[in-house]
Structure formats: structure tokens, C-alpha cells
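I hope you will forgive my troubling you with a question about protein structure. Here, with my thanks, is the record as I have it:
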Amino acid sequence: MHNETTSRTLLVAFLLCVVCSVIVSTAAVVLKPVQQENKALDKKKNILSAAGMLPDGKVTREKVDEAFKRIETKVVDLETGNYIAGQENFNARKAAKDPNQSIMMEPKEDIAGIKRRANLAEVYLVNSPEGELESVILPVHGYGLWSTLYGFLALETDLNTVIGLGFYEHAETPGLGGEVDNPKWKAIWPGKQIFLEDKTVGIKLVKGAVDSSQPGSEYKVDGLSGATLTSRGVENLIKFWMGNKGYGQYLDKIRPNS
């Protein structure tokens, strides 16, 4: 009798596990398209936000899709600065993990702390109704204090003046490095200049508030209070991606009068 009871218990437990597994697997398959759609929508929203193009009021899928029609997605070879066709499903994070699609960064060059950099990168071009380029949005990422920060940097057509900077993923300390999400801090960035006259990256995050009356203030941004390492990480990731190992070759190709 005891053995029979044990067998029945094990059988019931086994059948329960099978049923639960089927339910979970089915749910994962059914919900995957929805999850992918939401992920794509979130990406569009973050790109639009960096460019100051996020629709006013309640942000709906329809509004986001309509605003995103002005944005053209292209894939760039970072070594040559040329556009690469046939890369519609390109994923930079996956590519960075593949030795055949990425390069290992030398420590002295890896100021952003990314370790590996994909050979290709997506860029987003904002076009006017007449087809004229209005701005360029570039994915950027680099290490802060506790995590890699992923975001977008939007530039005007001079490829020097910042329109906006926003991070959509990080694990920095709330209230300190996490202030990269603070709208007040993000509002400091528009109008800042990336490059000095000699085309080297001049942007800096400084302690305290920037005195706009002082020479060179256009290259300086208020650092995050109590978050020196996160501030340094933001500065370094911008310097890296605007440099020769980042989008440097591409920016030279499309820069006006280059």
C-alpha cells in the first residue's frame, strides 16, 4: 500500500510538471511576438526621445510609428564609415560577442570599457519631408560605476551640436549615477558642442554647475552629484564613440564640407 501511494504521488508530480512545462512553453511561444513588438516600440521611443521628437501627450504606438516614419535606419562599417546593405536584422550586442563580427579593444583605447566593439553599427537619420538630413542619432554605450549604460546621442547636421542624450538601460545607483535619467540633467545637453576646432573630442563633465559666462562652457556639462565614476563613464563613452574607434570615420564621411 505504501509503495502504491508513493508511486501515485510521483506520477501526479510528474504529470503536473509536464502540464506546467507545456503551459509555460506555449505561453512563451504565443507571447514572443508581443514581446518583440514591445521591445521594438521601446527602442523607437528612446530614439525619438533623444532627438526631441517624442510625440506630446499620451504616447501611443500609432503616434510613435508616425513620428518614426521620418527616421531612416542604416548600418555603417565603423572601419570605413561606409553604409552596408543587407543588414536589416543587425544586432550590435550579439555581433560584439562574435569574434568574427567584432574586434577586441586594446586597454589603452577602450576608455568606454566595452571590451569588444562590433564591426558594424546602426545609425538613424532624421530627414525632412523634402528628404534633407536634419539630424543624426547614434547608439552609444560604455561602463559607468556598476553597469554598462546604453543610450542614444542625437546631433544636429553639423555633427557637433548635441540635440539630446538619453540612456534606456543601466544599473547605476538610484539617486546618484541613476540621475542620468533625470529630465533636468538631460535638459542640460542640448546645444553642447562635441568637437574642438582641431576636431578632437572636447566634451567634459565637470564637478558642480557650469558657468555659462566662461569661455569653453559650450564643451562642459554639469557632472552628476555624488556620482563621479558614472559621470566619468558618460564622458568616456562619448569620447570613445565620437573618436576614431567609434563613429569617427563615418562622421568624417558625412560631415558638411568634408
Q: What stands out?
A: The longest helix spans residues 2-50.
